[in-house]
Write a structure and sequence with these properties.
The protein is of the alpha/beta class. It has two domains: 5-141, Rossmann fold (3-Layer(aba) Sandwich); 147-207, Winged helix-like DNA-binding domain superfamily/Winged helix DNA-binding domain (Arc Repressor Mutant, subunit A, Orthogonal Bundle). It is 54% helix and 13% strand. The chain has eleven helices and six strands. The chain has helices at 13-23, 36-46, 62-72, 87-96, 107-119, 130-141, 147-150, 153-163, 168-175, 179-193, 198-207, and strands at residues 5-9, 28-33, 50-53, 77-82, 100-103, 124-125. It has a six-stranded parallel sheet with strand order 2-1-3-4-5-6, sandwiched between helices. It is globular. The mean pLDDT is 87.
Length: 213
């Protein structure tokens, strides 16, 4: 019988090793990556049945990667595996297209359940925060989208890289755009978010799960 294929994304090797031990008996692990940009590229190449990804990853965070993969590979199920207990992270991840949200300390007890439910198109959230998350999702559906969601994909990329402490030339090189274009995006982000400094951008990005401390 064919085992579902899974792609893993986490920038900590020890987490990947733990995932392999849990998943190998049931799934065919077809690849591992350590940042969000690599996750998008590898997912589009391999087209796995399932992706298990962290939120806090370099270059491009997991939520932004999930948002893009959900559009290009709508049949691929996605489960977030994270240390973040904050309900906001879970609601952002599910809004981006994830159907599972599992806390890292619950890998052995909940990950396989979440994975199987995700493959069926069912939402699973770790029991510790499930009630709060469902309440938050219901409330979010009655409100407008967050300002962060209204930023363009490129602006969210620039925001993450600025918050990671990259210089304008470094961001330009990473994104293959000119430094002037980076400055333009940064200015527009600050205008859209009502912020006035790089420090405020960084604080905003940490608060909204775009980068971790």
């Amino acid at each position: 019988m064919r085992r579902p294929t899974v792609l893993l994304a986490d920038d900590h090797e020890i987490v990947i090793e733990g995932l392999l031990r849990v998943l190998d008996p049931v799934f065919e692990v077809v690849g591992t990556v350590s940042d969000g940009a690599a996750l998008i590229k590898t997912a589009e190449k391999l087209k796995p049945d399932l992706i298990i990804a962290d939120i806090s990853m370099p270059v491009l965070n997991g939520i932004e990667a999930i948002r893009r993969i959900s559009k290009s590979l709508p049949r691929t199920a996605i489960v977030v595996l994270t240390m973040h207990l904050d309900v906001m992270y879970a609601t952002e991840a599910i809004a981006a297209g994830a159907t599972g949200y599992v806390l890292k300390h619950s890998i052995r007890s909940e990950l396989l359940t979440a994975a199987h439910k995700a493959l069926k198109g069912e939402v699973y959230v770790s029991a510790k925060i499930a009630s709060e998350v469902m309440t938050a999702l219901a409330e979010a559906s009655r409100r407008n989208k967050s300002v962060t969601m209204e930023l363009t994909a490129r602006q969210r990329e620039v925001l993450q890289l600025v918050a990671e402490g990259r210089t304008i030339p470094e961001i330009a090189q990473t994104l293959y755009i000119s430094p002037r274009t980076v400055e333009f995006h940064k200015y527009n982000i600050m205008e859209a978010l009502g912020l006035h400094s790089t420090a405020e951008l960084t604080q905003y990005a940490i608060k909204h799960g775009i980068v971790s401390v």
